[in-house]
């Protein structure tokens, strides 16, 4: 009887351990997910969010069933990829600014890096606008903190009245310029950036106080409902 109890107890432990192993993601499942995300990142950068997810499955060399298991809807996949890519984009721009000792050079480097990355990622172009929900609110928050820091560093070199909201809206506006001129004159935004930054220099008259931007009052469009991952 004692042997039976010990055996039964041992089976219970073994069964529990086996169930735990089954619940843990397998190495190939983790690898497939990473492959899908990497492929989706490249495709979304090239083609934007209108891409058919069958192209993502083809690039990642997995079946549609595998893609569905990881991302039941296209929206799930796009949101996951854009959150990662947006964070990396914002961090790259922050690092570029941090490397410059001169405050004005830091401001230029920030915009250069941010808009260069923006120009090479169609999906971020489509989502990084204050009129639509951004893919990574936390990433946008970090980006805003960087802009606020740049604004403080360059206080003596910035036109009186310029705020962090002005600098953030300038980034959004120049981002739209990248979209408009991207195919016909892909480097036009660099000229517009220099013109815009020259208008922020400290030797110009103060900006009118009654037209200070208030980003919190910019309306947000509603997003469409979930879309099946079939594209």
UniProtKB/TrEMBL annotation:
It comes from the Bacteria. GO terms for molecular function: DNA-binding transcription factor activity; transcription cis-regulatory region binding. Coiled coil: none annotated. Keywords: DNA-binding, Transcription, Transcription regulation. Transmembrane segments: none annotated. Pfam families: TetR_N. SUPFAM superfamilies: Homeodomain-like, Tetracyclin repressor-like, C-terminal domain. The keyword Transmembrane does not apply. Residues 30-89 form the HTH tetR-type domain. Residues 52-71 bind DNA. PANTHER family: HTH-TYPE TRANSCRIPTIONAL REGULATOR BETI, HTH-TYPE TRANSCRIPTIONAL REGULATOR RUTR. This is TetR family transcriptional regulator.
């Amino acid at each position: 009887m004692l042997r039976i109890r010990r055996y039964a107890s041992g089976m219970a432990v073994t069964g529990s351990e086996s169930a735990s192993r089954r619940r843990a993601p397998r190495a190939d499942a983790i690898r497939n997910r990473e492959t899908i995300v990497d492929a989706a990142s490249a495709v979304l950068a090239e083609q934007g969010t209108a891409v058919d997810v069958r192209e993502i499955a083809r690039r990642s060399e997995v079946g549609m069933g595998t893609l569905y298991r990881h991302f039941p809807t296209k929206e799930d996949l796009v949101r996951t990829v854009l959150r990662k890519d947006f964070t990396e984009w914002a961090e790259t721009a922050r690092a570029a600014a941090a490397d410059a000792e001169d405050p004005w050079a830091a401001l230029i480097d920030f915009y250069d890096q941010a808009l260069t990355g923006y120009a090479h990622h169609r999906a971020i172009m489509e989502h990084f606008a204050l009129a639509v929900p951004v893919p990574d609110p936390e990433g946008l928050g970090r980006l805003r903190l960087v802009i606020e820091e740049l604004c403080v560093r360059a206080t003596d070199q910035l036109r009186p009245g310029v705020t962090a909201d002005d600098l953030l809206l300038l980034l959004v506006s120049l981002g739209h310029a990248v979209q408009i001129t991207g195919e016909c004159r892909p480097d036009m935004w660099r000229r517009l950036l220099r013109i815009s930054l020259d208008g922020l220099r400290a030797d110009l008259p103060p900006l009118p106080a009654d037209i200070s931007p208030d980003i919190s009052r910019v309306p947000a469009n509603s997003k469409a409902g979930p879309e099946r991952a079939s594209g």
